[in-house]
């Protein structure tokens, strides 16, 4: 007998959703303030979370991931042998590594440790048994492993983190602005701190934070690192206000003992 039944069509399989990039956040010696900037991103954070799969982030989730990472964010500086080994293991599992925050990019305030004899610092922190506790001079992340992207600042300027993540996910370069904070400060129509009798590091500091501190009534402390070629404006400021270059250098040391690019 002839089979009159129509063949049953198997439903077309829904296209498999592309796996989201696996992203993890790790912290070393830091105050965790840069992580807080991320958790405070608000709606922007929802956009970020929509594009990636956050698999480790101690500040926000308890999950752990044992596979490789597409992107890792590293906060904090390196100050002992264990941290150095841990960082190298993370690097070995990461396609892209982003150092974020002054501690990670330039040593940050932790770098001030390098202004003293190591044993002097150890004794003042750990007391007479200080030799029981491992401690090494502060290193920025690029001084231990290869860094693919840097997000400067103490803390980071969160919108910049989103820009850097977008660049990383597209495989595009991101360059930290190399013009001084003064350029942004002038656009924001702030009264210059020098006119108020305060020494501000804006002429020597990399922009990109939208002159955050000055907008809020403070000086710039140089947390985003030094511009590679300070404008003539910087020399004019030194002579006009009779500043000593040593003063500027000492102020920069607060965040920048482990300068970018120095191995
Ligand atoms: S860069 Fe500043 S805010 Fe970020 S972890 Fe270091 S000390 Fe904290
Ligand atoms: S020196 Fe400081 S306050 Fe003056 S313009 Fe530059 S960033 Fe702004
Ligand atoms: S104004 Fe200066 S100290 Fe403040 S966030 Fe910007 S670079 Fe850092």
What tags apply to this protein structure?
alpha/beta, Rossmann fold, 2 domains, 5 strands, five-stranded parallel β-sheet, flat, 263 residues, 10 helices
Query: Rough shape?
Result: flat
CATH topology descriptor of the largest domain: Rossmann fold
| Sequence of strands across the biggest β-sheet | 2-1-3-4-5
Radius of gyration: 23 Å
Number of discrete domains: 2
Q: Percent of residues in beta strands?
A: 5-15%
* Amount of helix: 25-40%
Classify the secondary structure makeup into a structural class.
alpha/beta
Kindly report the average pLDDT value. Answer: 89
Which architecture of the largest domain does the CATH hierarchy give at level 2? 3-Layer(aba) Sandwich
CATH class descriptor of the largest domain: Alpha Beta
Distance between the termini: 84 Å
Low-confidence stretches: none
How many DSSP E strands?
5
CATH superfamily of the largest domain: NADH:ubiquinone oxidoreductase-like, 20kDa subunit
The number of distinct helices, counting runs of at least 4 residues, comes to 10
Largest sheet: 5 strands, parallel
Give the SSE string. EHHEEHEHHEHHHHH
Explain what this protein looks like in three dimensions.
With 263 residues, this protein is of the alpha/beta class. The chain has two domains: 22-170, 3-Layer(aba) Sandwich (Rossmann fold); 181-256, no CATH class. It is built from ten helices and five strands. It has helices spanning 33-39, 43-51, 81-92, 102-106, 118-126, 158-170, 181-187, 212-215, 232-240, 245-256, and strands spanning 22-27, 53-57, 69-75, 94-100, 149-151. The chain has a five-stranded parallel sheet, with helices on both faces. The longest helix is centred in the middle third of the chain and has 13 residues, at 158-170. It is flat, with a radius of gyration of 23 Å. The model has no long low-confidence stretch (mean pLDDT 89). One iron/sulfur cluster is lined by residues 153, 181, 205, 209, 211-214, 220-221, 223-224. One iron/sulfur cluster binds at residues 181-182, 185-186, 190, 192-194, 200, 202-203, 211, 214, 220.
């Amino acid at each position: 007998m002839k089979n009159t039944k129509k063949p049953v069509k198997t439903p077309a399989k829904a296209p498999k959703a592309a796996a989201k990039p696996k992203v993890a956040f790790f912290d070393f010696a830091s105050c965790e303030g840069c992580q807080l900037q991320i958790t405070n991103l608000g709606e922007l954070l929802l956009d970020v979370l929509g594009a990636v799969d956050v698999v480790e982030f101690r500040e926000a989730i308890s999950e752990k991931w044992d596979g490789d990472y597409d992107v890792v964010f590293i906060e904090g500086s390196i100050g002992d042998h264990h941290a150095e080994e841990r960082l190298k293991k993370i690097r070995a599992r990461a396609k892209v590594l982003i150092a974020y925050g002054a501690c990670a990019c330039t040593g940050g305030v932790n770098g001030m440790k390098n202004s003293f004899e190591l044993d002097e610092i150890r004794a003042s922190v750990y007391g007479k048994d200080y030799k029981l506790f491992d401690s090494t001079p502060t290193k920025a992340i690029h001084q231990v492993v290869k860094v693919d992207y840097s997000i400067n600042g103490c803390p980071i300027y969160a919108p910049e983190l989103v820009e850097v993540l977008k660049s990383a996910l597209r495989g595009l370069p991101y360059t930290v602005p190399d013009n001084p904070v003064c350029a942004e400060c002038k656009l924001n129509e702030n009264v210059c701190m020098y006119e108020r009798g305060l020494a501000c590091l804006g002429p020597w500091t990399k922009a990109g934070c939208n002159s955050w501190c000055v907008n809020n009534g403070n000086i710039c402390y140089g947390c985003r690192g030094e511009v590679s070629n300070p404008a003539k404006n910087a020399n004019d400021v030194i002579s006009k206000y009779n500043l000593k270059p040593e003063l500027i250098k000492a102020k920069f040391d607060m965040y920048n003992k482990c300068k970018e690019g120095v191995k």
